[in-house]
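Anyone? Bumping this.
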Amino acid sequence: MSARTNRLYVIGFVALLFGMSVLLLLLPKKSFSETENRLLQGLPELSWEAIKDKEFSKDAESYVTDHFPWRDKWVALKSEAEQLRLQQENNGIYKDKDGYLFEKFEEPAWEKVASYAEAVRKFAESHSDAKISFLLAPTSVGLYPERLPWLASSYSEEKVNDFIGSIVSESGTDSGTGSRSVSFLNGFDFLKPAAGEDLYYRTDHHWTTRGAYLAYAAFARSMGWSVKPESDFDIRTVTDSFLGSFHTKSQFSGAKPDTIEQYVPKKPAASEMTVADDGTKMEGLYAESYLSKKDKYSYFLGGVHALSEIRTELAPEDVSLDKLLVVKDSYAHSVLPFLALHVPDIHVIDIRYYNGSIADYMAENDIENVLLLFNTATFVSTPELLKLNN
Amino acid sequence: MVFSSLLFLFVFLPAVLLLYFASPRRLKNLVLFLTSLVFYAWGEPVYIAIMLLSTVTDYGFGLLLDNPKRPRLTRKWIVASSVVVNLSLLSFFKYADFLIGNVNSLLGTDIPPTDLPLPIGISFYTFQSMSYIVDVYRGTARAQRNWIDFGAFVALFPQLVAGPIVQYGSVAEQLKDRKVTVELFAEGVRRFTVGLAKKVLLANNIGLLWDGISGSSLDTLPALTAWLGIVAFAFQIYFDFSGYSDMAIGLGHMFGFRFNENFNKPYGAQSITDFWRRWHISLGTWFRDYVYIPLGGNRRGLKRQLLNILIVWLLTGFWHGASWNFVLWGLYFGIVLMLEKMWLLSWLRNVPGTVRHLYALAAILIGWVFFAFDRMPEMGTFFRALFGMNGHGLWNDETLYLAYTNAILLAVLAVASVPIAGRIAGSGLARLWRRSGAMQLVWHGVLFLLSIAYLVDATFNPFLYFRF
């Protein structure tokens, strides 16, 4: 090695180390990451307690990684390198040859799944005077397991749905109590016939508005309502530049952005949503502001809230039901605008963030109809479901 | 703190380099000592006291030993005291709960475990301190009178956490007098970069394959998936550990130190005897110099030699972790080594090199199964899978998927593991490579930048050798 090359090594190394550390120090810091959709670590506070509990060292490490210069670009470079080495998945996301992204679904812990399903059944049993519906939708990998890369495996969501369905539909032990079993709606039943359509976003874990419409139709039929045909809506594209969570996680290059559609009813109905978390009110069920942000699915209902209430002015002949409680994950966000065309007063609880008693809430608000709406992946990984019977 | 973290690379290391090269010569060891304490305290703010205790006592014992007029018996007592102090610290923190667990299950007692976390690097610095005392006793090294220099020797952050175990005699001179040249620093940069890439690009990624396989249901594993898994584990542990040693040696260079090598292409070995000359050399040397030879080594007849081998390998196994599987692992290698001493080696001499190599690899891989599972039932299940005894066949779709998606990585790992470079060293390509500084510069630059990309991406950055 020539002396000149050695000098270049030393200069290059020192320049890189010091250059990056100066940038790390001087570049303006963001407190929130759009891409990752989370708060970034703030400057750690130095105290003897924090040092002793290793709190300080942990926070300092997160601080450096969170604010590392060009963080997104480094992550993209890693994703690029992974594809070059034939790795078909990156951070748990698969990509098929058409650019569809899928999240691998692992075999769940059966005892846990059983306990969540039991919780749903017990919930129905202890509210025998109410009608409890449970809609369980597959995620995209569940509906299209054959589209994964060559030989890649994902556990069958259909099996999981059948397992959950069999538990929640078991009728009460004593038929004399009059306890009604859960009305179980398996997403596979109404999504499979339409599998050829775009039911899920290519780059996000949610279903499209079309998928949500099918879910609405299935639920409405089970309730005996007259389903509004698609011809009752003007379908308009609200954005065509949606890169969702799968893209964020995997950072696969060359992903085609998704479009988000809104079904605008030809006969309009004015809705107002009150978010109990912070008392804010929202006119309509769509938050335009999110369309210019990264997290565009939050266009529906403005994202996740622990508890909210949707009131809609409906002509008396349009009212199919007075009140409905929806306990849900974010798959419900694009379904609720359809439900609002039938029910003037909808209460919405996200059980992952709501800590009150649901029984009390139902009693206080005279609620006799409940819809539980989850996707399979969320359902099997949400221990908060056990709070249903609190 | 670990070397393969953004905090170390872009905050700690620049700060230390700045302080070190800005301070006058007589303060350099103090800078290293103090920054090493910060490095250690980062992950173990409380346990730093234990390291300092071991350092201070051995510094004192060293001074006591330094007086040649002291009677031989007294000097022996001093050495014994040092060994007792160090081994007590090690036993208490590393082996107490293991002992309590075994006593409880054997006698049906209910002694509560201490549940203390293992102080980082304790297996390394206690061994390093003991080597100092023994060297001074034997007269192969002079006692260190300067407490700063001695502190820097024990706490030196490049090798504090995971070795190489530096014997005092090999760095005594360097502590007093060393010079950082551009050439040595550049060599350090290359060595560090290669080590970082080994850890971050190779070990972590193949580790994902092992995690996937060992985390799946073991009783339905087809045989080839199990073999793929244990091969992945073998690569992970080698590239993780040798990468860390490379980084330590490279960092040492940046501060003017030359540590001894710790690995020499162990998977190119032709026997287990050969393997242990190439794997974790500093530990092997330590046990040879301070246990095997004092026990009589091979000078007291074959029977005694075999016993000595057994003792050394039980200890080596136990050093790796307080769990029965490590004892089993050491015992396994002890037995294989005894067999090799008695007749296997002479038999191996008459077979082709490829056969010797395959024998060694198979024996090493079997060894890693003992190492990888600290719960016996799982180990048994995995062995059954390896030998196709669970009725789940040779392979399935999953096996093929894992194989083709990791094919390139496995090929790189294989080439980087065996001494193939030595064989093509004479070729024109190798000559061109050695001459072309620009090509190497680009190569190391790419490795460094890619490693940063993986580090930024990763939440997956466990360091395997923290357990020891």
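Late reply, but here is one note on the structure posted above: DSSP finds 13 helices and 15 strands in chain A.
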